[in-house]
Amino acid sequence: MTVPGRRSSTFIRLLRSGFTDPSGAARLLDADALSAVRADPVLLDALGSTADPDLALLGLVRLAEAQRPEELRVLLDTLVSAKPLRDRLLGVLGASEALGDHLARHPQDWQALVTYEAADLHPGLAEFERGLADAHDPVQLRVSYRRCLLSIAARDVCGTTDVQQVAAELADLATATLRAALRIASAAAPEDAARCRLAVIAMGKCGGNELNYVSDVDVIFVGDSPDGEDEGRAVQAATRLASHLMRICSETTVEGTIWPVDANLRPEGRNGPLVRTLASHLAYYQRWAKTWEFQALLKARAVAGDETLGAEYIEAISPLVWQAAERENFVPDVQKMRRRVVDNIPAAQVDRELKLGPGGLRDVEFAVQLLQLVHGRTDATLHSGTTLDALHALAAGGYVGRADAAQLHDAYRFLRAMEHRIQLYRLRRTHLVPEDENDLRRLGRSMGLRTEPVAELNKAWRRHASVVRRLHEKIFYRPLLDAVAQLAPGEARLSPRAAGQRLEALGYADPAAALRHLEALASGVSRKAAIQRTLLPVMLGWFADSADPDAGLLNFRKVSDALGKTPWYLRLLRDEGAAAENLARVLSAGRLAPDLLMRAPEAVALLGDPEGLQPRTHEALEQEVLAAVNRAENAEAAVAAARGVRRRELFRTTAGDIIGSYGTEDNPAEEDHGALVDRVGSAVSDLTAATIAGALRAAVREQWGDTLPTRFAVIGVGRFGGHELAYGSDADVLFVHEPREGVDEQDAAKAAQAVVSEMRRLLQLPSADPPLLIDADLRPEGRSGPLVRTLPSYAAYYRRWSLTWESQALLRAATVAGDQELGSRFIDLIDPLRYPVEGLGDDAVREIRRLKARMESERLPRGADPTLHTKLGRGGLSDVEWTVQLMQMRHAWAEPGLRTTRTREALAASHAAGLIPTEEAQILDEAWVLATRVRNAVMLVRGRAGDTFPSEARELAAVGRYLGYAEGTAGDMLEDYRRITRRARAVVDELFYGS
User: Fold this and answer.
1) In this model, does residue 10 exceed pLDDT 60?
2) How many angstroms separate the Cα of 233 from the Cα of each of 283, 313, 772, 960?
3) pTM score, two decimals?
């Protein structure tokens, strides 16, 4: 009974130690070679701590069985008594089947893991060269290489070195191997060696001191002739040596291969000569090289052969590398290369691809290299071929956010560690995460994940890949880089002199003042100044793309002064490419938007939010305004809060309008100008309505508390009621009230009059916010009549005294604030007036036409050009609106679609009803939209309302840019306006005047 018990106990212990095949492990432990140590608990614990205890035990048995008796005793004694050796040897055997095979073939090589001295813990190139010194043929070189690799892997799996140190050691070992291979090739052909000078330039990961366990070693060969030798014969000799070197490393022997030596990064790739002279290299790079070749040269490092020639090569090509970002289409070229790499991954493998897939190693490497090449031309601290060192330098220089850099650093190290452990298992070149459960388990345990290694590994891998993908999209595809990369040489980090010259070239009217702004923004050694120096060259280009670069830069300084100490402002501009470009467009498009922003600089955050420039709904606006009013201590504070909301929302609207009209590098200008106009009109109208509702609440609460003695409604008319307010429009309104039950009519009237007066006073209080003027002149009896009436009073007036023009004015009446039910009854009251049954009579039509003709002759300002006046000029807003309104008054009683307060909706309904032919409807719509856009543009540019084009050249150019006209084409803009409105006037003459 004892034997089964012992076996059961051993089985359970092996299972708890991490063996997946306890029965097989028990048989291996019973092997004769391990008889002296099989009962040692230290050995079992050590095996259980490896990545794959089953694999480690199998490798140990094979190694022990390959020893001679006296050597076996030494091995086992050392294994039990020396913890450093035990951890190293078993760690390697549990992580690498290939190195276990090597130890079985070369059983004495385990002794390479015995020493535990300082030099052994962190060996360098000299130590590896000594390790390969006795190799005189390719087979010996492979054995010596594996022995050195064994020590690197041992330090790796035991955690003595981190992933970056491991990669550097592998690159040093590759360097030593290339030197040894060249030594062997030279010894085999001494005549060739004497006839030439040959330098080996490492590229890729070897050049960057960050090599994998198994990777192609990319090289470029440079040849030259010693003094007195023919250059052609020297290059031929160098080519033979280089070819032999490649075969020594790449060919398969009884000891396998080392790694392929790949020279395809050389000029002309496989089609070009294997070896060129330095002069030939330079001639190619200066005339024919593509962008990707300079990106590859970023990691070039002379590693073997003629040291002087190698140094000359690096010195000669370095300036070309750091000027690569000045090449046309540099950034798009690099991005296309990245996309091509991803596109070439088989669909079945893309989710397992550790290197080339989305969120993989190549994403980090491409992003870092692109940032290096863009900014490294003026910052030598970025000139590193090692990814993590370069990432650290980018963060230190303010080119990458510190938090982003730290996340990328951690993710890259994790992914590289995964890659190392995957390749170490069989020493095969692969970047695919395994699918087999046992392989994933071993991989997870090798990464220190022991509880649920497979689940933990997948979770950590996906997390890090997600981080890389997110940050890569933000950094690699950041639109800022494209602009920075296209700047002239020396501009990415501006000196005062270069800045002055550049400002003049960009067309700044006052370069001296602009230079002072730049110096204020970018001088100093603070992180803030470093980020500004990164942003400014890009911002200057965007400002120069506007009609007023000086204003753009001045406004940028003002915003930066106001927000420069907030932690999010510069980070927003640096990391969110759209925010920086959007801000540049807004700050240089005129006065209105920057003025609004200066009063609330924190609104710049809206520019980085993809949804931040979309107008908010009327309901949301009114809710926010009323909540702000309710929190205020008095009426003045309440309306100040409401006007503050209005200011911010006006900025949102103006910014969205500018960016939609100008377009950005990623998003072209919006082609549907009518949609832009409708969006602005609705947004400004909704905002005005919400502000008036807030003023009404404040006025009522201040004197009467929650309830006014009379029900009260505000009716919007004109552009306000039509949801067509421009930025500079007054709010045309009517006021209606109805005494509450039990309230004396005179007291109710006094209360209504008082609340109107208080509303107007509050909204006209001196303030830095844009004014909101309430105009009630369209009320019955005009300025002579009472400001506010009851419904019966309105009904009596309209029944007895109403004129045709008053019915026309009511076409755009809509309830905008106050008691909605009372407002609805007012609308019901006026519907028969504005939509008369059977339409207008002939006399009424003639009266409307007479009024329109008189208005054209009397109200057009003296000296105004009638062909360019947007409101009263030929084919302008008045022409189109009166034509549409005449259609409404004549036909809305029979066509419900015409019963709308909006001009464009009524025009579309007239066309749908067959009242206006298609072409004529399109002509009128185009003219109305254009005239409205011009009015909006004038307000945006000048900061004050106007109905004509500006006379000042720069302002006129800014209006043109808003309308989509290039610099220098203001004349074309005016001619286009005249042509479009002339056609519209012809339609008006036909449809309105009947001519």
Assistant:
1) yes
2) 20, 20, 88, 67
3) 0.59
